[in-house]
Design goal:
Chain lengths: ~80, ~525
Amino acid sequence: MKTFTYTITDALGIHARPAGLLVKLAAGYQSNILISREGKEANAKRIMAIMGLGATTGAEITVKVEGPDEGEAAAAVEDFLKANL
Amino acid sequence: MVKCTGKSVLKGIAVGRICLYRKKVADVSHAPAENVEKELERFDLAVGRAKEQLAALYENALKSVGEEEAMIFDVHSMMLEDEGYLEDIRALIQDGRNAQAAVHETGQQYSRMFAEMDDEYMKARSADVLDISGRVIDILTGAGEMSIQSQTPVILLADDLTPSETISMDKSKILAFVTVHGSASSHTAILARSMNLPSLVNTQTELLEEYHGKMAVVDGFHGELLIDPPQDILDAMILKRDQWTAEREGLRGLIGADNVTRDGRRVNVYCNIGNAQDADSVLAADGGGIGLFRSEFLFLGRDSCPSEEEQFESYKKVLEKMQGKKVIIRTLDIGADKKADYLDLEPEENPALGYRAIRICMDRPELFCTQLRAIYRASAFGTAAIMFPMIISLEEIREIKRIVEGVKKELADKQVPMGEVELGIMIETPAAALISDELAGEVDFFSIGTNDLTQYTLAADRQNQKLEKICDTHHKAVLKLIGMTVENGHKKGIWVGICGELAADLSLTRTFVDMGVDELSVSPAYVLELRKTIREL
């Protein structure tokens, strides 16, 4: 399992567009990708759950990746967060 | 034959079949389902159909407005694939609800979840859930029917259309708009003009089901809609339409000609546009530049603010297309009749006199500076100018210039390339016109917005159809304010243009040229006609 944390810097937080892009990215990997924030946990392949995290500017999120392609998936998600959020 | 009169927004004739565009209200009462299996099947089919609609909307938006704008339909499609949401609906159906009631209840529940979040932006997301749920419900109940089903272009007959509705329509399928409500300066009218479609607003007609599919004529010369005309009238109107088309073709001989009067006075004829694609019509019509780029259209019909990057791309695209010709970008003029849910603007008693345009921008430096940064970054790719709407005082423009300097310094520190950018203001309040002598010392140009200037000067709401007669743009008071603004601008050596609807009013072209107006900015469709008029003065 791979785990890392990331702090949202985008002014609007994880809003609809990046959430949609993140879901598309996550769907491309077999691994289970979970994003949590303040006790709430969301499957990165479920857009409503991700939007429901309410991760706004300054929120620290933890990403857990587990599965056959976890190394690649974790790196891709981290790159995505850095580039978009 | 049924003959209805309306207010024409563009000369011309359209002949085609009527498409009735009406939103029906869905029945989501909790009538129990007879057969759970059958309800689940209906639900799955409806979700599939909804995704097809969204895919078509996405493709359409991709072509007409670009990927960033189209993304919302893709997001909606993904929301319809969300297992949690789908499972909750299925559970309610298994519990005995009919499919539409189950979708309605689940939609409400998810929407509440977003609405209860302590973040303003996410609160607004509840609208997305309601939107996708509504789409599925409409399919289940046969309500809605928002899309144009016809394969051939149609005359769209509707009660009224919001700017976001017109944006999501497939424009290649529309010959003309006819609306029961809306005034000649409403946004439906402005869009119809920019799309070059003869259209009627404020039309005295009913939206009868039997009109759907009937042959009809929209006569933009006389403001008439003829439903089911006899063959001889139809033939005569087709002939008239073809003559008009030929006449417009004839005007094309003026492409490349100067906008100079017979006694040698020169006027710049620029165009008003609402998005980057419109720049193509400007070039096709031989517009000398863009006198008004309504940047708010980048902010409408979507669910979040366009990012700096998105805005930068749009401005850059227009500047590149215009190849060095001037492009005047008006900063966000939202509020009043143009609304974006995600900005969370409270409903107002009197929106035209309310919280709008520069008033919002100055309260939200982040929104304003993002737009300014995008424009300045794009300025390296052509000749950009910026103008600020709804100015009423010297203090406002000084504060704006201070903010602009901050943005420029920030970009300069990062060594971002920028071009020279002229700064101007809209003169659209009587206050600005009356102190134009002082304001002229602060800016590089004035652009007179005659639609608002008229409504504010005459205290007559331009959205109120009953006041259309009173809202006289030729009123002496309006013309006097325009004349005064031109004179005060010239005294301080700055140029003055007109970008409101009045700029295209050929009966006033002589008056404006005599006042010394330097630039007239009109819909691309009017460029050549205006050029012809100027050359005959």
